[in-house]
Amino acid sequence: MPSLDVKKKLEGMAGLPSIPRAAKHISELATTPHTPMKRLERAIGSDPAMAARMLRFANSEIYGFPNRIDSLSHSLILLGVDMIRGLILSTRVMESNLAEAEALWRHSLAVSWVASELGVRVGLKDLERISLVGLLHDLGKLALLVLFPGKYETVARKVRINKLDSLAAEIEVFGVGHAEVAGQLCQSWSLPSSIYAPIVHHHSPDQAKEGFALAAVIHVADVIVKAAGVGHTHDTYVPPVVNDAWRELGISEDDLKEVVFDAAGQLRNLELLDPFSG
Amino acid sequence: MASSRDRRRSILIVTKEDLFGQGMSSALKSKGYRTWVATKFRLILDRVYLAPPDLLLLDEEATREGSQDIITWMVAGDFQGRVPLIIMVDEGGLARVARMRRLPVDDYLIKPFAQEELLLKVDLCFRRRERQWERNPLTLLPGNLRIIREIQRRLDIDEPFAFAYSDLSDFKPFNDRYGFSRGDEVLHMTARIMTNTVKELCQQRGFVGHIGGDDFVFSTDADIVDEVCQQMIERFDFVLPTFYEEEDRERGFIVSLDRKGNENRFPFMSLAIGIATNETRKFSHYGEISEVASDLKNFAKKWPGSHYYRDKRVR
């Protein structure tokens, strides 16, 4: 399948759907009077589709600062309460492939969390952006799953039977991988490069021209989460870490063991991964 | 950014009767309008949010499908200026239009109507808006005439209110360093933060206007103005660094040219607000209250960082 078809479909896509539980929880908060903004922000920041929706609208041409806003909290301040509410109530909800979408959602939350932990250890400053990019890093997968549910099955099969990693399998099936798909989406939504560059390069941080450190952190976090077996992303084995990522981040083996150990413990804690359970 | 005059006006038609909508659409298109027809609001929300129409032609029944909030939001949108609303009703519907309090209806058409009538109503609606809704071409906030009219109205009814005059300190060196288009982005950001804050804390009783350049004004109930200013300043200071490049953000200042053309260090921009209220002293004209607020704003600029200063004199 030529990547051009994927590109066309992406352009015609209205927006990514949220998983029903997340959408329900967020809508309830949004329609409850006097919900503190911080609480609403936490809820929105737990759903990749909803968070992306807010960023997209805050960066839209009509507000006058496209490609500028790279933080969820800034987006919400600039959109204002009425607009946020409108965007939440009019959001799309995932209707099929729910199990897949939920697994992907768990994976994204876990990467967001582990990336923040790593970010602290390697001394990165903008923790909010790290956790946001972690949350959004697999937007491309969600888009492919929504646009081509049947074909995405084929990817899963190739991963299982041919022992490919999911990126390679996607390229075989779609002619393009999820990282690049996410890049196209982010660009069509006028998101700033500080968000999309690390998303595009989360499998290839060594090729990132901008935001290497963040791409590397997301990359390592992605591998750790896959190793810990949280959520799933079709990959049945743990992909290798790009060499430079370790070196450049300056993580020692001991450090890493600690992060993996901490992460494994934390990730087992389902409370953390299910902010909508209570 | 192009002002609304530079492009063709867009009209959104919402009606369940698709054929009827298409008929209206082709008549309007023949007059050079851009139109789009929707049978259901929910299907077009993203588009409405991204590019609000210049006029809304609404079948009455569309107001019953749980879309009132969106319609109200769109019609009241502070940024694009209020979108005029023409409602289409059956002959028996006039009394219902008269009772519509939540929807600010501008005009009505009784179905069935002739094409000429449709075109004339639409044209008159736009002409009326041009007369009444003068606005700043950059931020689309109300401009000087509307500011004067609105503040004078508040002075005349003689209820307590607060009037604030505000500008950005160190805006000029920022423009010199980053260029006008980045400066415009900051003005857009400031306009949004002001409007969101005023609206969240004062709903429809608040007012925000853009005098020009980096000069803004707003008006709120007198008892809430401190909270409005504190929130506004907090949000402005929080979002502002995004508009600076990383190297400047790291060192916390910019290097730009001063008035004499010499290179100099300048702090990040800050928001200065001066507030006058008619609680303890009497103002009869816009000019008076605006001069006092502007002086207090200059006073607020004497300290580094964002500040507001409130008039405490009694006269």
Structure, explained:
The complex is a heterodimer of chains A (278) and B (315). Chain A has 278 residues and is mainly alpha-helical. Helices cover 67% and strands 0% of the residues of chain A. Chain A is globular, with a radius of gyration of 18 Å. The relative contact order of chain A is 0.14. Chain B has a five-stranded parallel beta sheet with strand order 2-1-3-4-5, with helices on one face. With 315 residues, chain B is α/β, with parallel strands linked by helices. Chain B contains eleven helices and twelve strands. The chains are: A mainly alpha (278), B alpha/beta (315). The A-B interface holds A 14-15, 57, 60-65, 68-71, 73-74, 77-83, 85-87, 89-90 and B 1, 42, 45-46, 49-52, 69-70, 73, 79-80, 138-139, 184-185, 187-189, 192-193, 195-196, 199-200, 235, 238-239, 242-243.
Strand-residue fraction of chain A?
under 5%
Order of helices and strands of chain A: HHHHHHHHHHHHHHHHH
Written as H for each helix and E for each strand, in order along the chain, the element string of chain B is: EHEHEHEHEHHEHHEEHHEEEHE
Question: Count the strands of chain A?
Answer: 0
